[in-house]
Specification:
Length: 232
């Protein structure tokens, strides 16, 4: 079984085990977000959730990506930055703008790429369990098959008209029109510390074997078009 951990980033920017965080009398109001750490990435997931359109500019703002290519990108940070720059002339809020402008904890938040979103979906049940344990209301939880809205936007583009996202109801990856509204969840990079109680959040982007990552997603139910011939 793949290695993973779910912890919480306190408002003091220290990383806590869920049980220890609760034992200290703290709940989600004393935290910045949930830390999801796997062999492939470590990210802070914001508690806040929004409904936004992706935002169509009638052109590709990053690059066209099929599913296999999109899954070779391990961070949506640069993608989000490029999208926001390309949407500078668009009136109103968009998915990328919402994440980029989020300021909680002083981190640079961004719209996760398809890979990051897929990993969050793979660990959805564990993440939701941890959030419930620290008192998060239902609106903070990642969507499930029982949710009214299960489509979540990524920063990975497919064409000038559509962008990638994940159906959290069944773990399926797909794309839909950029003018459509979908759920938005912001993430930020995190550097795990040797000691849970003294770790400081830092910018980090770890790359690991694409084959191992594919195997992990396969084991957790992913049925997309990925092959073991990807290169990073």
């Amino acid at each position: 079984m793949e290695k993973h951990s779910i912890s919480v980033l306190g408002a003091d920017k220290k990383q806590y085990e869920i049980a220890d965080f609760r034992a200290r009398g703290m709940n989600y109001t004393n935290a910045i977000g949930i830390i999801v750490t796997t062999e492939f990435m470590s990210r802070i997931l914001a508690f806040d959730t929004w409904q936004e359109r992706w935002g169509n500019t009638d052109r590709v703002l990053t690059e066209e990506q099929n599913e296999s290519v999109a899954m070779q990108t391990f961070s949506g940070l640069d993608l989000t930055k490029r999208i926001v720059e390309g949407q500078a002339g668009i009136d109103g809020m968009t998915a990328a703008k919402r994440c980029w402008n989020y300021q909680k904890g002083g981190f640079q938040w961004y719209l996760p790429c398809l890979m990051e979103l897929g990993v969050l979906c793979a660990y959805r049940d564990e993440i939701n369990k941890a959030m419930k344990e620290i008192g998060c209301p239902d609106e903070c939880l990642l969507p499930t098959e029982d949710s009214d809205e299960t489509w979540v936007w990524s920063s990975s583009e497919n064409s000038q008209d559509v962008s990638w996202g994940v159906y959290f109801s069944n773990g399926g990856f797909g794309n839909t029109g950029k003018y459509n509204s979908g759920m938005v969840r912001a993430v930020a990079a995190f550097q795990p510390s040797p000691s849970l109680l003294t770790g400081e959040a830092k910018s980090n982007d770890c790359l690991h074997s694409d084959e191992a990552l594919i195997n992990m997603l396969r084991e957790r139910g992913y049925k997309g078009e990925l092959t073991k011939t990807l290169t990073i």
